[in-house]
Write a structure and sequence with these properties.
By secondary structure, the chain is mainly alpha-helical. Helix content is about 75%, strand content about 0%. Helix 1 packs across helix 2. The longest helix has 24 residues, at about 50-70.
Length: about 80
């Protein structure tokens, strides 16, 4: 199973533009599409799994709370 983050073409293009804008505004550096795409790929590979796992953990906690609330609705 391929667990790499994937984006639609439009979403990837938008993120690439945002990365280019960030470098221009925050670092006063111009980077091209290739550099921004490679940077996005790097973050997806190195940081993506951590962010994904955090989302899974947050979802588990959310649903555990909801299941606990359901137990309180039982009629005895």
């Amino acid at each position: 199973m391929d667990k790499r983050l994937k984006f639609t073409r439009e979403h990837q293009m938008r993120i690439v533009e945002e990365l280019k804008e960030y470098f221009l505004v925050e670092r006063d550096e111009e980077i091209g599409d290739l550099a921004a795409t490679l940077l996005l790929d790097f973050f997806c590979e190195k940081v993506g799994p951590t962010l994904y796992n955090r989302g899974v953990q947050d979802s588990q906690a959310f649903f555990a709370d909801k299941l606990e609330e359901l137990s309180g609705l039982e009629i005895w």
